[in-house]
Amino acid sequence: MVKTLAAPSKYFQGADILKDLHQYVGFIGEKFIVLSDDIVIEIVRDKIRQGFQDTQASWEYIRFGGESTQAEAQRIVDIAKRDKHDGIIGIGGGKVTDTAKLVADMCGLPVVIIPTAAATDAPCSAMSVIYDEDGTFVVSKRMKKNPDVVLVDTQVIAEAPLRTFIAGVGDAFACYYEARACRSAGSMNYIGGLGTQAAYTIATLCNQALRENAVEAKKAVEGKKSTEALEKTVEAIIYMGGVGFENNGCAIAHGVYNGMTAVIKPFHAMHGEAVAVGTLIQLAAEKIDRAEYDDILGFFREVGLPVCLEDLGVEKVTDQLIMEIAQAGCTVSPNAHKMPFKVTPQVLYDAIQVVQERSR
What we know:
- By secondary structure, the chain is α/β, with parallel strands linked by helices.
- 54% of the residues lie in helices and 13% in strands.
- It has two domains: 156 residues, Rossmann fold (3-Layer(aba) Sandwich), CATH 3.40.50; 198 residues, Up-down Bundle (Dehydroquinate synthase-like, alpha domain), CATH 1.20.1090.
- It has a six-stranded parallel β-sheet, sandwiched between helices.
């Protein structure tokens, strides 16, 4: 089996670097679509203007429709082709950046990803998650290439809602444990090969960086200041988590998340929040040593991550609901089956019950 490794072409991270935007994206061209939403664009508009000031570049703001669907991507593709843009800049959360990647892939343009919150590990990947109109997961689609530029302004990240940052820690924390499971099982990654030593080392370093810095970084976000702990945690979430998951693979943690979105309606939890609970479910299914489990549970509580279904906003947890999540986790996506043992609905059901009990 071939070993594979993929990553974004360029990665830039630092406080207030959005004010120098053209310096980092000018090589792409001079005419850009800026895909974002009305809330985010008001936060970053002045920085974008400053970033393109005294250059020949122009940008057109396109309002994101709210859901990462195939139809929404096609709408923006039509605008890009009509107005002959040179590149797509996606600024915002996961669904905005997923759509920007899909648009760029569909019309063959370069894409710049600028996350305004460290809420997921998706910005660096060539994956675009597509949902239907009501927010149910449909498919994770692989783009032809990873983003041309990922630009992370850590001052913007520091000023984002604390909940988004904590969710990002939850999403990235799954990276190492899913990588470990996939490596043990010999499962293929998202590029169609086996993970390299470098990929597994990145996933391992991601876990280490989170354990060492996330609690202090949380304090930085509470104070809306970019600190060294925040810089290290943001790099772990966005770069290490992104490159790590794509090149090693996902497992039960994300499989259960996919199942939750299919069963729990409406689904109010953020992606990383649900993945955090999914990680605990995976660890329970693996029957890891109780001391290791409790150590991770303690870290989750210190950071502020959810540790059970009730923490995700589920008001009434029943045995029937747990089985429905377990069944969907096995069927909605292939992730849960990338473990070194056979995963059935009963395996997930039993693991969810363990997590529910231990959370008390």
